[in-house]
Amino acid sequence: MPPVTNKVPKFEPNLLGMVIKAFMLKPTGPTGEVPKSVTPSVTAEYGKYLANSVANCRGCHTNRDLQTGAFIGEDYSGGFHMDVIGKPGNFCVSRNLTPDPETGHIYNWSQEKFIERFRQGKLIPDSPMPWGPFLKFSDDDLRAIYLYLKTLKPVKK
Ligand code: HEC
What is the DSSP letter of 34? Predict the structure, then answer.
């Protein structure tokens, strides 16, 4: 890109800002041990890595507090309302991906159906789920994610 001369002022918060920065903004780190290396394989362990650390399935398929970003629902149980940008009043809700027999959205899906669904891309035009980029998953990646989702604690919604 062409170089642009633009002096950005130094970040100098006032007293209140410094207090907030020191006591209220807490950086969040990894919740468990970080693996030293990851080997692609058709295992729930690799699926967990893809779902949590690469594709952020958990970030949308768990209910969140929109003010703080904190997770307020049970992992992967869905119910996170996301407003459709530019369409006031419209929203999408993420699905319960846990293996609950009654309310788990993919409980009855075979591995093949799961892969097939990802190959179809976006079907609901306003969906915020990045179906397009997810077309790049290989069948084995999707098998691994499917295996991981089956290991989750079932949550009835
Ligand atoms: C940006 C938010 C977001 C992310 C990231 C996300 N999803 Fe979703 N997902 C949604 C929403 C909202 C829906 C409901 C609308 C739809 O079906 O597109 C949904 C629907 C689904 C469905 C049901 C589709 C159907 O046709 O019934 C499955 C399965 C799914 N997501 C799995 C996943 C997996 C696996 C990942 C990670 C690889 C993931 N999602 C990442 C928001 C997200």
Answer: P
